[in-house]
Design a protein that fits this description.
Layout (H helix, E strand, L loop, with lengths): L11 H4 L3 H34 L4 H29 L24 H26 L4 H25 L6 H26 L15 H22 L7
């Protein structure tokens, strides 16, 4: 296991911000904390589904670690929100999330679709998003947070790609998945668009928030340059 860096005790880049900006960033990080703890719940559901379909042990190991990673990410996000607000981190409120129902899909296909949607698509996009945020980070606290989070999300995306490439997924299952991927891509893109719409329009220079338009371009580029080629690489034919 790699050594995890703690957030610095003091970050001058946070201290020099005006109060309104600090409170805005605190609220954004609190929302990130809620998103991360909910993603941990989603990964727990995905892990159960992977057991159900007989996933390989290496994939189960990656998915199990992802569950705990997301809980740790949530704690770091909550701590960072407290740093911006100038107070202790507020308690997290975990909940059991509901997975997409994928109306019309065969019941046996659902565990595969859940890992494809969460890992192959969402976590691949998330890694590109975090990379763009890290490039805009000058505050040490957000640099530490994004480096750790980015490394983990790359591993989380691998859960899906490794599963699709494994012997636990036969050719007919890959065909069925490919038919539904366009729907999953659309849903994920819309979810990211809605999330980005809540961020400051022009970003927060130095604090890991690029402008909205730049972040949406990152999402679209990730879909075209990472996600679609990824499906090609594992033998999942996706209709354009």
């Amino acid at each position: 296991m790699s050594v995890r860096r703690a957030l610095p005790d003091h970050d001058p880049a946070i201290a020099e911000l005006d109060e309104a900006t600090r409170l805005t960033l605190a609220a954004l990080w609190e929302e990130r904390a809620r998103s991360e703890i909910n993603t941990g719940s989603a990964f727990a559901r995905v892990l159960t589904g992977l057991y159900e379909v007989g996933a390989e042990a290496s994939v189960l190991d990656l998915a199990g670690r992802a569950c705990t990673d997301e809980v740790r990410h949530a704690g770091l996000c909550a701590e960072l929100a407290g740093r911006y607000r100038g107070e202790a981190a507020r308690p997290l409120e975990p909940k059991r999330v509901h997975m997409p129902t994928h109306v019309g899909a065969p019941r046996a296909l659902l565990p595969h679709l859940h890992v494809v949607g969460l890992c192959c698509i969402n976590e691949s996009i998330a890694a590109a998003f975090l990379d763009a945020c890290l490039a805009e980070a000058r505050a040490e606290s957000v640099q530490v947070m994004h480096r750790e989070h980015l490394a983990d999300d790359v591993a989380h995306a691998r859960v899906g790609w490794a599963h699709l490439a494994s012997r636990a997924v036969d050719d007919d299952t890959r065909r069925q998945i490919g038919e539904l991927v366009p729907r999953l891509l659309y849903a994920n893109r819309e979810a990211w668009r809605d999330r980005i719409a809540t961020l400051p329009e022009h970003g927060v220079p130095g604090h890991a928030y690029p402008a909205r338009a730049a972040l949406m371009a990152v999402v679209d580029d990730a879909i075209d340059a990472i996600v679609r080629p990824g499906f090609d690489a594992v033998g999942v034919s996706v209709r354009r």
